[in-house]
Amino acid sequence: MRLFQTTTTRRSASLDGLWRFIIDKENCGIDGKWYENFPSNADKMCVPGCWNLDPKYFAYEGVAWYQTEFTAEEEIYVLEFSSVLMQATVYIDGAEMGSHYGGFTPFCITGRGKGWHQLTVRVDNTHNAVNTIPLSRVDWYHYGGIAGQVKVTSYAGAYIADRRISYELNGNQACGTVEFRIAGEYRGDAEIRMNDTLLAKVPVSDGENRVPVSFGEIVRWDTECPQLYQVRIAIEGDDVTERVGFRTVETRGTKILLNGKEIRLKAVNRHNEHPDFGFSMPFSLMKRDADIIKNLGCNMIRGSHYPNPPEFLDYLDEIGMLFWEEIPMWGYETEALTDPLTCRRGLAMHEEMVRRDYHHPSVIFWGLHNEIFTDIDAGYQVTKKFCEKVKSLDTSRLVTYASFKPEDDISLEFADVISMNVYPGWYGGHDIEKEGGEIITKIMKHLRETGNDNKPLIISEFGAGAVFGERSFYDAKWTEQYQVELLERLIPKFFAEDAVQGLIIWQYCDVRSSFELELTRPRNFNNKGLVDEYRRPKAAYYAVKKIYERF
Ligand code: ADA
After folding, report:
1. Which of 371, 486, 505 for a ligand 1 pocket mutation test, highest count of atoms within 8 Å of Cβ?
2. pLDDT mean over 21-44
């Protein structure tokens, strides 16, 4: 789903609804050719949806099969899956048509044949400790299923298969290029418009096309005035629209500059999850989250720990909220980092994320990974490869990663902005002031020693767990008042350090955690939310709102 009209010509049909569904605990569906003969005892499952929301499958992690039918109105059709958690193999009329790895980015399957088709999808949500992304051990819940929308679009002739709009700014004059790939046979004109103004009409042919354009005088996108423009590419019989916002983001010394002006980031980490929907949040709930976060006084959200749906990013574009996007690479140690498959999968995920979300002005950071062992060579090598990949696709944004090695990270050269996850006053003792001061001193010492003290620093995670409604007569951990106290002390303390140009509180809302962490996660939730999992505000929500107003 998008929040603007993406085409005026295409005929798409949504395949969302109830599909036939069966879990495959023994992993025998391939041998049993379920893609030809779907088991007759199948259940029904919502698409989009996560199977864990049905109590029968609450704790199921493994393989499951889905089936439905669709009609293609033309000879060529493209099936678009926006999110399948996490590995998908697609069969059409019993033939394997393709597969995709990674639950948070979309993929397409192209088929031929006008008329009725049977669509079967094998979904594998198995994680391991070596080369899946994410690994089995994470601090969220491994929901499985066809979590995002599925649609089919039929094409009578050539169509625009891919596009990218880039620009450079000189004052408020924008010029750049519109690149697009035409699939099928084509020789004819292409028209490029911004809103309703014709920018170019040029002869093009199938394959890759690159058209230089001048966008003229524009109003820049920023957090106060999030001006957006629609850029439409049209060929005979097909057209697509992208939405862009013109802005620059860069660093100067320890400052972060948006459109050349210093900006201090006041942010929260947010999981795109809700206990009643899993990772299939309806747009209305995502919008509500963004509104609650805006009301808190934030100007940025970190999308911990995976790419977020395009409609959420569309909304952030509209309200002028900045965004940090990353891939679900969380907590990798030596063995997992040196497995070549981990790296291949990570590179592919970065590529899919950057290509899909390239046009969102809200996205200012690409996050390479979270809390991997960046103090060893294996972590250094992976960081280097990821950084090179991301920069080869996009030089218009800042690259960072959330490190948990404040004293011995050896990979910081790849970060435009240094980001550190630290938990003073939580995983240590109760002396919030002392631990907070010590950690900042250690980080700054390490940055000086490694020559990274001329870069902005973000404290990308800090916080305390609080069970909604919990109180006590002393500063007990897990109470709402301890969470308030910790945030009230740490926010001013961190911002007092010159290099600190951003704070990202862990976290916006409580989130269902994994069974592996149940002993350290009361209720099996990560309870560090400023609101609980049903978005009920804790005392800390109001405390942070007051403090964020001051900075
Ligand atoms: C890490 C991690 C988060 C969360 C947090 C915590 O920093 O990146 O996902 O697990 O710790 O609550 O301890």
Report:
1. 371
2. 98
Quote the pLDDT of residue 193. Answer: 98
Phi, psi of 141, rounded to the nearest 5 degrees: -110, 135
Q: What is the pLDDT of residue 224?
A: 97
Question: Ligand 1 test: best mutation among 421, 426, 508, most atoms within 8 Å of CB?
Answer: 421
The pLDDT confidence band at residue 182, using thresholds 50, 70 and 90, is very high
Ligand 1 atom with the shortest distance to the CA of 370: 8
Q: Environment class of residue 508 by beta-carbon count within 10 Å: exposed (0-12), middle (13-18) or buried (19+)?
A: buried
Q: Is 513 in the pocket of ligand 1 (CB under 6 A)?
A: no
Q: Buried (b) or exposed (e) across 422-452, using 16+ Cβ within 10 A?
A: bbbbbeeeeebeebbbebbeebbebbeeeeb
| Ligand 1 site, residue 52, Cβ cutoff 6 A | no
Q: Would you say 529 and 511 are in contact if contact means Cβ atoms under 8 Å apart?
A: yes
What's at 188, amino acid-wise? G
Centre of ligand 1 from the C-alpha of residue 383, in Å? 19
**Which residue's CA is the closest to the ligand 1 atom numbered 10?**
139
Q: What value does the mean pLDDT of the chain take?
A: 97
pLDDT at 293: 98
Residues 6 or more apart whose Cβ sits within 8 Å of residue 207: 181, 182
Please state, in angstroms and rounded to a whole number, the distance separating the CA atoms of residues 115 and 119.
13
pLDDT digits (tens, 9 = 90+) for 370-385: 999 999 999 999 999 9
- Residue among 135, 137, 138, 139 whose CB has most ligand 1 atoms within 8 A, to mutate: 139
Q: Is the CB of 508 under 6 A from ligand 1?
A: no
Q: How far is the CA of 139 from the centre of ligand 1 (A)?
A: 7
Q: Percent of the chain beyond pLDDT 90?
A: 99
Pocket test residue of 403, 421, 427, 506 for ligand 1, highest count of atoms within 8 A of CB: 506
User: Does residue 478 register a pLDDT over 90?
Assistant: yes
Q: Is 139 in the pocket of ligand 1 (CB under 6 A)?
A: yes
Ligand 1 in contact with 506 (CB < 6 A)? yes
CA 510–ligand 1 middle distance (angstroms): 12
CA of 387 to the centre of ligand 1 (A): 22
Contact between residue 249 and residue 257 where contact means Cβ atoms under 8 Å apart: yes
Per-residue pLDDT reduced to its tens digit, 204-253? 999 999 999 999 999 999 999 999 999 999 999 999 999 999 999 999 99
Using one digit for the tens of pLDDT, what is the confidence trace for 413-459? 999 999 999 999 999 999 999 999 999 999 999 999 999 999 999 99
Terminal CA-CA length for the chain: 35
- Arithmetic mean of pLDDT, 41-69: 98
**For residue 114, what are the CA distances in angstroms to 68, 76, 77, 94, 237?**
17, 7, 8, 16, 18
Residue 370 Cβ < 6 Å to ligand 1: yes
pLDDT at residue 475 above 90? no
* Closest among 80, 67, 82, 60 to 144, alpha carbons compared: 60
The Cα 508–Cα 326 span in angstroms is: 17
